Amino acid sequence: MNSLINFSDLSKNTAQLLPKHFSSSIESVAVCSGLVELVESCQKHDACLYFSEGKFSLYQLIVQLIIRANIPANLYFMSWGLSEEPLRAFHKLKEENKLQDIYCILDYRIKERQPTAFQFCSSLATKIGFEKSHAKAVVIEFQDRIYTIIGSQNMTRNNKNEAGIILSNIELGNHAKDYLHSKIYDTGTKE
C-alpha cells in the first residue's frame, strides 16, 4: 500500500526536509490495549495502534521498548508537557547504558509551567529546542531499527485514556528523526 504525506499545510522548512511523496508498505498492523501486548507486537508488526485506557503512560512504553531491544538507543521527542517521573526513568536507562542521547523539543513556556522538570531535563538531555508546540512525537533509534510514536500523550505520568501509533519503518523513522533534529537546532536551544 502506498501512502502520500500532504505537505500543503507545512512550512517551507518542513517541506524541504521531507520528500514530496513518501511511499511505504505497511503489511501488518496490530491493535493493542495493554503495555506488554503492545511492546511484544512492535517486534512483529509494521504498525501498532494503541489505546492506553489509562493503564500506561508514554514514557513507560518508551522504557519498555528500550529494555526489550536490549541494545543502546537514542531518544528524540516533542512534548507540550513534561514531568519528573519520565525523566527519572530515562536517567536510570542512561545509567544502565541503555539510553545514550536524548534530544527534545519542548513548548517554549515549559520553564515557567514546569520549572523543576525543566531543570532536570536540562541536566539530562543532550540538546533541547523550544518552540510553540503542542505536538507529541517520539523517535527511538537503535542500531538496527527505529520506532516512531505519534499520539496524544505528553511526556508525563498519565492515567487518562490516550491513543497513538507506533511505526517501525526505518525510512519514515529516519525522516521523523531528521525533522526533530533539525527543529532542535533551528529553534532557541540549550546545549
Structure characterization notes:
The chain is an alpha/beta fold and 191 residues long. The protein contains seven helices and nine strands; from the N terminus they run αβαβαβαβααββββαβ. The chain has helices at 12-17, 35-42, 58-69, 84-95, 110-113, 115-124, 170-186, and strands at residues 29-32, 47-51, 73-79, 99-107, 127-131, 137-142, 146-151, 163-167, 188-190. α3 runs parallel beside α4 (84-95) and α4 packs parallel to α6 (115-124). The chain starts with 11 loop residues before the first helix and ends with a strand.
Helix/strand-derived category reads: alpha/beta
| Largest sheet entry | 9 strands, mixed
Helix content: 25-40%
Report strand order across the widest sheet: 1-2-8-7-6-3-4-5-9
User: So what's the overall shape?
Assistant: globular
Radius of gyration: 16 Å
Order of helices and strands: HEHEHEHEHHEEEEHE
Q: If helices are DSSP runs of H or I spanning 4 or more residues, what is the number of helices?
A: 7
Q: Compute the separation of the termini in Å.
A: 41 Å
List the main descriptive attributes of the protein structure presented here.
alpha/beta; 191 residues; 26% strand; 9-stranded mixed beta sheet; single chain; disordered N terminus; 7 helices
